[in-house]
Design goal:
By secondary structure, the protein is α+β, with helices and mostly antiparallel strands. The chain has 4 helices and 7 strands, in the order E-H-H-E-H-E-E-E-E-H-E.
């Protein structure tokens, strides 16, 4: 399934959580990479919210909470047909439902020269 989104700034909280050894080791085991400490935040069109909520609600890929940190659902995806990563759905989030958080091993803003407002595509492995 392909979803298009618009790059947007987040709150900067993911950098702290993804920098924790607990999450780094779990993502290494479950996704095959240690994520860059931060997410690429995307807003998605309202027409895609039902698809996103269906993916989130039926997702069985989970990193269970531990060490006082919340759990995270994740689904593998590919950004711009070139960057392998995952969309994460943290148990605890302050984002609106039209936000997606994408993780990968690299700083994607630098690697792909992305800025707020750029349009990107995600291929989600369902």
């Amino acid at each position: 399934m392909e979803i298009n989104g618009t790059v947007t700034s987040g709150f900067g909280k993911a950098a702290y959580f993804l920098g924790q050894d607990f999450y780094k080791s779990q993502f290494k085991v479950k996704c095959g990479f240690i994520p860059y400490p931060g997410t690429l935040n995307l807003t998605v069109p309202e027409k895609d919210l039902d698809k996103i909520n269906n993916i989130k609600n039926n997702c069985r890929n989970v990193i269970k909470s531990d060490q006082g940190f919340g759990g995270v659902k994740y689904i593998k995806a590919k950004l711009e047909n070139s960057v392998t990563g995952a969309i994460v759905f943290p148990d605890k989030t302050t984002h609106e439902e039209n936000y997606l958080e994408f993780i990968a091993k690299d700083n994607l803003r630098k690697k792909l020269h992305l800025k707020d407002g750029n349009k990107v595509s995600l291929e989600i492995n369902i």
